[in-house]
Amino acid sequence: MELIFWVSVALLAYAYVGYPALVAARARLRPRPPARGGEPTVSIVIVAHDEATRIGARIQNLLALDYPADRLEIVIASDGSSDGTPERARAWEPEGVTVVAFETRRGKPAVLNDVVPKARGEIVVMGDARQTFDARALRELVTPFGDAGVGAVSGELILRADGETHVGEGVGFYWRYEKFIRRHESRADSTVGATGAIYAIRRALFVPIPPDTILDDVLIPMTIARRGYRVLFEAGARAYDRPAATAREEFRRKVRTIAGTFQLFARGRWLLSPRQNRLWLQTVSHKGLRLLSPLLLLAIAGSNVLLLGHGLYRLSLGAQVVFYAAALLGWLTPNARTRIPFMGVPYVFCLLNWATAVAFVRFLSGRQRVTWDKAAG
Among 3.40.640.10, 3.90.550.10, 1.20.140.10, 3.20.20.70, what is the CATH number of 42-246? Predict the structure, then answer.
């Protein structure tokens, strides 16, 4: 029982504390800043489904970007919309916006497979209808491509909220923590995947992906990294969104994302091979071990109960009880305006681990669809 307890604690601690410390140290000791510069031709591809209420504002946001208009192509690809999304988008065709309307909804990967190879830009930027880009986001996103060894660049998603709830506080903390890891992975070599709201690739490196891929923003960059190119995180390229308004919304988002991670590992066995994946350590540490977190937490709690004859284990069980009690309180009042610092962190941590368990079941049963039903707002 002691072996189970301490091995589980060590793996959990490494995944959430040790690995971030390791990549931060590596980035400080062996930084690899890329060469920068240039104004390559760029195609922005926005895949939208039933976004009639948002698409006008999104196009205006893209047209206002600080980038030469003669080097920029904007493509709105409607994925089987039935609410007039392509018709509204065509109002901007006189300003150079290209609208591609697909009759049947197939999901973002299938649309990208059709649209990206036909894009005119040397660099293709992927985004969604929901978020908005900072005025200088495009310039910041493409400047690292001045380095011939860079194949993909992820921007930074900024979550903005009017007020902090337990959910918002926890999600905000988690997202800052995640960006800390990506930033330091990038400084040393490459990050694992990208931010779906804003990322760019060299069009020549695009390879069609399976149409039922859930996480195109991980699979596409990883296939590029497999060919020896770097995948960078550029904090200056900012996209804006709001955090999940409710626990249910955040739960749905995370179940889908984590089910996509299970799908990637099940199909791409090369991701777990040190010989085939040059980012093996990052992949296993950043993505793989987190999938084991629910099992590790159960192993820690179960073995701890059987070790209560020792004082140290009584303390460790007490610490777990306090942690889960805080999570329970967060669950009982998920949308309350928090006044207790870090109340949302235990809650969202437990929420994410429960989402991992649910995602595993959905992946095994094939119930997680590639298409996404957007939240209101």
Answer: 3.90.550.10
